[in-house]
Amino acid sequence: MSKLKTKQISFDVKAIEDDGTFSGYCSVFDVEDSYGDVVKAGAYAETIKEWAEKGKMPPVLWQHGRGDVIGVWTKLVEDEKGLYGEGRLLIKDVTKAREAHALMKHGAIDGLSIGYRVRKWSFNEEDGVLELLDIDLKEISIVTFPANEDSLVDNIKSILESGDIPSLPEFEKFLRDAGGFSKSQATAIAGHGLRSLIQGEPEAKKLANDASETLAILQRINRNV
After folding, report:
1. What share of the chain is helix, strand, coil (3-state, %, to 5)?
2. Per residue in 176-206, pLDDT tens?
């Protein structure tokens, strides 16, 4: 089973009501996000259908905490713009829900992060982006901060340690954000060196298991070029 991924969303909030209900777009189609991904129309169609067949909707979590359910989505639909959602924070029964509601009402928090797995994707070589075609949506969290460099390193490291290979866009993003490489440098390194690094000699494999050390070596090479 593929690793559960998370993706930060700048939530386009349309309304936050006193009773805890809120609505807005959770995802917009055909727009490249900070991860180098583009969600295509229809990506959520199957997962919405599957949730409907279960007779429920994805939970609203606080900071991706599985034990911190603070609300429920009451409606998730795709339209020509993207994934539109209506949710309800359980402000009468859950303390964290009341806190999240107050922060959202005052504009202190305006971010969502989805927990998902990609079931179908394609790489657009011309634009250099990963097109997400079928997303298995697990949960949607209200979060304080977007993904940072440390979490990006941890994500790549966990993928390598599990014996898997990150996608080219994931590794390019890692090199650009955490390593300071230009887009062209990151593309060249990811395209020509990633697979050989992981599938090479034992020492190379050992190095690949530590994303931080790999990054440091690549940075030293870059400075000496």
Report:
1. 35, 30, 30
2. 665 566 777 777 766 666 555 545 544 444 4
Q: Parallel, antiparallel, or unpaired for β 82-89 and 59-62?
A: unpaired
Tally of CB atoms within 10 A around 157? 20
What amino acid occupies position 24?
Answer: G
Nearest to 114 by CA among 86, 146, 77, 88: 146
Mean pLDDT of 160-175: 65
d(CA 138, CA 3): 12
Q: Which two tokens stand for residue 136?
A: 């298995």
Q: What is the crossing angle of helices 149-161 and 168-179, to 10°?
A: 140
- One-letter-per-residue 3-state SS of 67-131: CCEEEEEEEEEECCCEEEEEEEECCCCCHHHHHHHHHHHCCCCCEEEEEEEEEEEEEECCCCEEE
Site of tokens 């007779």: 55
Q: Six-digit token pair at 188?
A: 């060249």
- Identify whether the C-beta of residue 22 lies closer than 8 Å to the C-beta of residue 108: no
Tell me which H or E stretch contains 188: helix 183-198
Which pTM does this prediction carry? 0.62
